[in-house]
Design goal:
- By secondary structure, the protein is α/β, with parallel strands linked by helices.
- The strands form seven sheets. A four-stranded mixed sheet has the order 2-1-3-8. A three-stranded mixed sheet has the order 4-17-10. It has a two-stranded parallel sheet with strand order 5-9.
- 40% of the residues lie in helices and 14% in strands.
């Protein structure tokens, strides 16, 4: 209401000022004309020579003020375009009948959303993780390849039986199909009003704590955990996104997010920002190695990766950043590599049995802050006034690394030798 009153007040002032500027030229022109006529009338007694310089001065004044009015009108259109941005329509989705307004019986749930290529290679670890949880405290949703089903023939854990989405799509890395799959997962999970926290996970993610600790950690915070920072690289933002997405609202961050219910609804209900990403956020074509150098035209193309920008930019556009912990709960180690063609790329390091020992896991758990260089911002990991670990999950973990976590009791008791016997 206050926002609407503010806009109306500003618009009223703008209209009043425009009307004033519009009337002034004609008033001045009439005054100057009358002066000119009066001057000519009085001069008839002394001389019959008119005073053209007075008329010219009047017309000159009218022309200057008319040009000023035109400039002002253009500025006003630009001004109004800022206030007619989709921010209000995005945020307005929260005023609809919330899916969470329906009463549910029992404790609030965490919805674990697995975004996988096909099967779940670490299902044995997650199966052990869920074995040590109350069934009423969680739900599972899987987006896999269309037509793939999770049953006794495709997974070792009964927790995943039949948990695949029926409306899954073919996902291509670096394309908008990735964020479309995320939206499908969130939409399915929102159908259960008991789901109050939503955790997006890949097929190589592992939990770093048992279920009880993760459940308490997430339920204790009223905020979403979304890694989000200002993206200063020119090649990511596409100018064609304006005016719907302004550059000062453009954000970047990790794909692996944890949301409260209201923010999940904002993402699923979005009908404004997602189409812009589909049309204008595209990764650049890979370089042609045969040429030895990047094509100059390709260099100018925007290399936009939708899943690294969509949620962050959407929540920024909806003015919801104040409701976020602007960090991810999923730990990733990035290795920068450069090819002979001097094109740099970042790739996550895969943890193996050898480098996933107790000391490394302890180092990850001991991290208590994250530094964002582009904003000179340090994000301290706290729950209210208490310092807490920054990360609850980690990726990318191989099967060997996951088996080591199980054998050392990270997620719960498990006999890894039994798994080795059945997986051969």
């Amino acid at each position: 209401m206050l926002w609407a009153l503010t806009i109306n007040f500003i618009s009223f002032n703008v209209l009043s000022l425009e009307f004033t500027i519009f009337v002034i030229p004609f008033s001045l022109f009439n005054a100057v004309t009358r002066m000119s006529i009066a001057g000519r009338t009085m001069s008839k007694k002394a001389s019959t020579v008119p005073t053209p310089h007075v008329i010219w001065f009047g017309w000159k004044l009218v022309i200057i003020l008319s040009v000023s009015l035109s400039v002002f009108a253009i500025l006003r259109l630009h001004f109004n375009s800022d206030f007619s941005s989709p921010v209000s329509s995005i945020y307005g989705s929260r005023s609809r009948i919330s899916r969470g307004s329906f009463h549910f019986v029992g404790p609030p749930k965490i919805a674990f959303l697995f975004l996988v290529r096909k099967e779940l290679p670490l299902d044995f670890l997650w199966g052990s993780f869920f074995e040590n949880a109350e069934v009423a405290n969680f739900s599972i949703f899987i987006h896999s390849a269309p037509g793939f089903e999770f049953d006794e023939s495709t997974t070792r854990s009964h927790f995943f039986y039949g948990r695949q989405l029926k409306n899954s799509i073919q996902v291509v890395w670096g394309e908008s199909s990735m964020i479309e799959a995320e939206r499908l997962l969130l939409s399915a999970a929102l159908d259960d009003p008991a789901n109050q926290r939503f955790v997006l996970l890949s097929d190589s993610c592992v939990p770093l704590y048992n279920f009880s600790y993760i459940y308490s950690y997430l339920m204790a915070s009223p905020r979403s955990f979304v890694d989000s920072f200002v993206d200063t690289k020119e090649e990511r933002y596409n100018q064609k996104m304006s005016p719907i997405i302004r550059k000062h609202k453009w954000r970047k961050g990790s794909q692996w997010i944890t949301l409260v219910r209201t923010h999940a609804e904002v993402i699923v209900d979005d009908e404004v920002i997602f189409p812009v990403f589909q049309k204008h956020c595209k990764r650049a074509p890979p370089p042609d190695a045969s040429k030895g150098k990047l094509n100059p035209k390709l260099k100018k193309q925007n290399n936009c990766i939708p899943d690294e920008h969509y949620v962050q930019t959407l929540l920024s556009m909806a003015d919801l950043e104040g409701e976020l912990e602007r960090r991810t709960l999923t730990y990733t180690v990035w290795n920068q590599s450069a090819t002979k063609m001097e094109s740099k790329g970042w790739h996550p390091i895969t943890f193996t049995y050898a480098n996933a020992g107790p000391q490394k896991i302890r180092e990850i758990k001991d991290i208590n802050h994250v530094y964002y260089e582009s904003e000179y911002r340090t994000e301290w990991c706290r729950s209210y006034a208490t310092s807490v670990p920054c990360f609850l999950f980690a990726r990318k973990f191989s099967r060997g690394a996951a088996m080591r976590l199980l054998s050392e009791g990270v997620v719960g008791p498990f006999d890894a030798s039994a798994l080795l016997a059945t997986s051969t």
